Amino acid sequence: MVSKKIESALNNQIRIEAESSQIYLAMAVWAEVKGLEGVSKFMYDQSNEEREHMLKLVKFINERGGHAHISELNAPNVTFGSFKEMFEKLFEHEVFVSNSINELVHITLQEKDYATHNFLQWYVAEQIEEEAVARTILDKINMIGDDKGGLYLFDRDIQQLTVVSSATDGSPV
Ligand code: FEO
Question: Which atom of ligand 1 is nearest to the CA of 94?
Fold first, then answer.
C-alpha cells in the first residue's frame, strides 16, 4: 500500500512523464515539417518511450492500492529557433526529469517505502541512459554548427542512435 505522500509524489511524476511525451511529440512534428525525417523519427520514438514511462507509473500506483491521477498538462513549445536549440531543450528537460526522479527516490527513503524505492531504480537507470543519449546528440550538433551537409548526415545517423538506445534500454514496461 502506498502512503498518500508517496501516491502524490508518484502522481506528480506521471504528469512530468506525460508532459515529456508531449514535449517530444511537438519536437517530432517540428522536425518532420522541417524535412528532417531521422530527427523526427527519433523524437516520435522518444515521445512513445515517455508515454511508456508514464504508464508504468500508472500501473504501479494502482497495483499498490493508490489511484493514478490523469491530469491536465502544460502545453509544450511547438517551434524552435534551430535544431541546436531544440536538442538543448531536450537535454535540459532530461536533466530536469532526472532531478525529479532523484527527489522521488529521496522521499521514498524518508517514508521508508522500500517497494517504491526498488521500483524507482528502473527510472534511475533509464535517466542515466537518456541523459547520455541527449548529451551525445548535443555534442554532435555542436560540431555540425550551421553546416547543412552536416545536418543531412546527422539526420541519417541519428537513426543509429535510436537503435543503440533501444537496444540497451531493455523492456520499457
Ligand atoms: Fe521519462 Fe526521458 O524521462
Answer: 2
Average pLDDT for the chain: 92
Residue 172 has pLDDT above 70, yes or no: no
Q: Does residue 17 have its Cβ closer than 6 Å to ligand 1?
A: yes
C-beta of residue 94 within 8 angstroms of C-beta of residue 134:
yes
Please state the domain extents for the chain: 4-160
Indicate whether residue 13 lines ligand 1 (CB < 6 A): no
**146 pLDDT exceeds 80?**
no
- Is domain 4-160 annotated with CATH 1.10.10.10? no
Mean pLDDT of all residues in 70-98: 96
Locate 115 and state its grid cell: 517497494
Does the pLDDT at position 53 exceed 90? Answer: yes
Helical H segments across 34-74, by residue range: 37-63
